[in-house]
Amino acid sequence: MNSGGFIQENFSIFQASHEGSWAILAILFLVAYFLFRGGKSKAGTIIHMIARLFFVIMLVTGASMLIAYQFAYFFFIKGLLAVLLIGFMEAALGKAKRNENSLGMLFAVLVVLVVIVLMGYGIIRF
Ligand code: HEM
């Protein structure tokens, strides 16, 4: 089994899926969040489930590229932040659904999301 070869050969597929999915995830998150905030729990739950599918897409495609980049420090940090982001998104949606104060978590999601996207496009670099 040569998984390195597989990832190298399909790198552009992972990259295109990653780049094409992040904005969809961001929109799904916001729609689910405001559905929950508006008391539309059932519709919110459906969108939340679709958002979770996009968590998996982002994790699998991102982790594949990270392996291809041999865990380069910068992208490793970006990946860690992305895992944190997914945790914040889950926390914000859970709080919104339970009608708890969720504004702080929403703010955390937006800040970390902006940082990750700027890192992805190389605007923030180190
Ligand atoms: C859900 C949160 C995530 C968001 C919003 C996000 C966003 C982005 C964006 C906008 C790019 C630039 C796309 C491009 O030019 O191709 C990118 C690239 C990248 N991401 Fe993510 N990402 C997320 C999750 C992850 C995770 C979990 C990992 C790793 C485990 C990861 C690893 C990478 C790598 C290695 C690249 C560089 C690809 C390249 O060379 O273009 N990302 N990400």
UniProtKB/TrEMBL annotation:
One GO term describing the cellular component: plasma membrane
How does the protein's chain sit in the membrane according to the entry? Multi-pass membrane protein
The answer to whether keyword tRNA-binding applies is no
Question: Where would one find coiled-coil regions in this protein?
Answer: none
Q: InterPro entries under this entry? A: UPF0344 (IPR010899)
The protein's superkingdom reads Bacteria
Pfam families on file: DUF1516
Localization terms from the record: Cell membrane
Q: Which UniProt keywords apply?
A: Cell membrane, Membrane, Transmembrane, Transmembrane helix
What family is it from? Belongs to the UPF0344 family.
Write the protein's name: UPF0344 protein CHH61_09355
